[in-house]
Amino acid sequence: MNIKRTLLNTALVLVTAATLAACSQDSEDKVEDAMSSAGDTVEQTMDDAGDALNSAGNSMEDTMTDAGNAVEDTCEDIKEGTNAKDTDC
């Protein structure tokens, strides 16, 4: 939701910058500069969003690994407590 809002705000800035630049004498250069700047902002926003998603994925992977290890440790503790011959889980 936050990414969508950021992209919509960036689009609004693009339109506003293009409109204001088109009203001046050097409109062609200003529009080009405004569009380039806005494009850079969108690119940075997308990079940041990708980094955030990658970080979240890594965090989820670490959490799942820790959970799996905890289940395995608990299983082995139970088997050891019951004097099972095979304590490997």
Automatic annotation (TrEMBL):
Keywords: Signal
Source domain of life: Bacteria
Signal peptide extent: 1-21
Identification of the protein by name: Putative secreted protein
